[in-house]
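Researcher: Go.
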Amino acid sequence: MGVRIRKPYCAGTWYSDNPKILSNELDEYLSRSKKEKLDVKAVIVPHAGYAYSGQTAAHSFKQISPETEKVFVLGTAHRFPLKGANITDYDYYSSPLGNVKVSDEIKNILKENNIVSIEEADYGEHSIEIEIPFLQRVLKNFSLIPIIVGKVEPNDFSVLLEKYVDEKSIIVASVDLSHFHIYDEAKKLDDYSINCILNLNAEGIKTAEIDSPYAIMALIELAKRKNWKAKLLDYKNSGDIIKDKESVVGYSSIVFYEPEVKLFTGEDKKYMEKLAKETVETFVKEGKKLFVENPPENLKKKLACFVTIKDNIDLRGCIGTIEPVGNLFDSIIDNAISASSRDYRFEPITENELPDLNYEVSVLTEPEDLKYKNENDLLEKIIDKGVILEKYGHRAVYLPQVWEHFSSPEDFLSSLCRKAGLQSGEWRGKEMNFYVFDLC
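Model: Structure:
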């Protein structure tokens, strides 16, 4: 038997069959999508024509690591009453951008229970095909495992996926949401489906209007075992794209990611807060610096921190450093003393106040010089980050938790400018430098 190539059905209709036009269109969608700092393991993308859902899909495809070597694409059986999960034995999938090799692993997967190979299940089916050009724009060298998911037992199928997924893999679930409802009704149906996914509620998907429920239930079961989290990046329906709001189709971009392992546990944070409290009380009552004979090992790391002191209502002091100054243990003690007695905005804390004070220790990642293309790009990239602003010797910093006091990134930056002794709108100037950081 010769080389078997799966030809595209939708090129020239659902998306351009001209390689240059197609590449430019995909690159434009991707350029308008934000790259999240997440360790993404699986994505949900729509599969309508690019004019309808291309931008929504791009938000998920933007998150795929360029180091990915193997892509599982879970398609939908639109035209065939499929029982099981179907793999048609092709050697390559073709698109206007070239051929993609099908992984040699399908030979083993085809031997698994509930895996079938029925060519008719793929006749005229677009749900896998339409994701191929996007993958070709975000990855250089990868192999494909294309599976059309019919009626399967979700947990069993999730176990099968887990058997073959590795650190160089990504799962792409090709799924549209509700179909052919009026706009407001579609929104309600889609909100329910999205909330089930975000809350890893596989049982709830059974009553959701979603066109690949078994694939999504399996993905949720896998996410629960792997301790992945889900995040919505974008939602639209066709009524947001064209004027017709009487009969719409819903599209979502959702990622499943492995949460970053925190440097410090909840117990560590309680210890740091207790250390700050005892430091301040010792200094205020006795005028002495707290001495601890055997500080914990993980507080001997060289890290920067801030110590924030509040009474029941208001801020009473906040002092810290952006760059590390010695080990974290000593920095907490030094900054706690400074916050209680050397914050120029407040009078030094008195002994009578001590019973009513609360303490917070914020340990910082190393600040990164923020590069951005334009004002909108800047505003997107600072959200929920700690921000340092510099211009002509003026400098100010806000910690990430300060965001809770602002309703927009513009207000956040305007306030930060004023804190630095600048005019509110000066953050828009080209001479301004920004640095961002997170909490450990």
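Model: The longest helix spans residues 266-286.
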